[in-house]
Design a protein that fits this description.
Layout: H1 2-7, E1 33-37, H2 39-55, E2 61-66, H3 68-76, E3 82-85, H4 91-99, E4 104-118, E5 126-128, H5 129-137, E6 154-158, H6 163-173, E7 182-184, H7 187-196, E8 200-205, E9 221-226, H8 239-243, E10 250-258
Parallel strand pairs: 1-2, 1-3, 5-9, 6-7, 6-8
Antiparallel strand pairs: 3-10, 4-8, 4-9, 4-10
């Protein structure tokens, strides 16, 4: 379990509130625990749930994706116990929750480094945050403008219900995305597109390009990112870069529950 905790998404399991996890207690053993939301979190939470259920046969946990917005909407509609979200809940969502009698309670369960990814044939090895923002807002449209070959840049991003879409837009782009960006359903779809597009660039959760042993997945390449032109560029593939925030595009991954977890939703586990 140490490898799983260490390398999936390059996380430190800095679980608040003494470590909230999902558990069906013996008194309600067959009660299904629903977890829904962030595509960036779904594989991580699914793997943790699978390992936990093997160790605790009474636990019954279902994990699905759909995006952070979908998970939070399900929490508000009381159709999920846990909303996975790679962004913080928005004020309009808090208002909707209050109207529905739901009290969203945030638990930071991991730290993620959003990875900037290209095809391995692309010679670009590093970019600044400013260059990256200009690329995704459409101000830089050719790779030669950042020291690459003379080729039009293809953009791949997420759909608007994605927490990664929101975070990357607010933190990196700081404007609307280019209308030419292709909106993909999830991280895996971006990776598959980039494997076929030598001029493409996209952003994904680091767990989609680095396996649980810290090894790069085949077919794509991570671009190192620096805060500015005077700073060193770092890769999110090294956990210390993410946890120290030397890698500049880091964010918390969250669980949201309806009120402080207790009973069937609360147990403290250390694998």
């Amino acid at each position: 379990m140490k490898g799983l905790r260490k390398w999936i998404w390059m996380i430190a399991m800095a679980i608040s509130l003494n470590g909230f996890v999902l558990l069906c207690p013996e008194s309600n053993a067959q009660r299904l625990i629903q977890i829904k939301g962030s595509d960036s979190e779904v594989n991580l939470v699914q793997r943790l749930a699978e390992v936990f259920m093997k160790k605790h046969p009474d636990a019954n946990i279902a994990v699905t994706g759909g995006g952070s917005g979908t998970g939070i909407a399900a929490l508000i509609n009381k159709t999920t116990d846990i909303a996975n979200s790679s962004r913080e809940i928005q004020s309009k969502e808090e208002e909707a929750a209050k109207s529905a009698g739901v009290q969203p309670f945030r638990i930071v369960m991991a730290t993620d480094g959003i990875s900037v990814v290209t095809h391995p044939a692309n010679p670009i090895s590093k970019l600044t945050l400013e260059q990256l923002g200009k690329i995704f807002k459409g101000e830089i449209t050719n790779w030669k403008e950042v020291g690459g070959k003379d080729a039009k840049i293809s953009l791949y991003g997420r759909q608007s219900n994605s927490g990664t879409y929101v975070f990357f837009r607010e933190f990196v782009v700081k404007a609307d995305y280019s209308p030419h960006m292709k909106a993909m359903n999830g991280n895996a779809q971006i990776i598959e597109a980039l494997k076929k597009d030598q001029d493409g660039i996209g952003y994904v959760a680091v767990g989609y390009v680095v396996n649980d042993k810290g090894e790069m997945m085949p077919g794509v390449k991570i671009v190192n990112i620096s805060k500015d032109g005077q700073s060193e560029a770092y890769s999110p593939a090294k956990i210390e870069n993410v946890m120290s925030k030397k890698y500049p595009i880091t964010r918390p991954l969250n669980h949201y529950t309806n009120g402080k977890p207790s009973g069937k939703l609360l147990d403290f586990i250390k694998f």
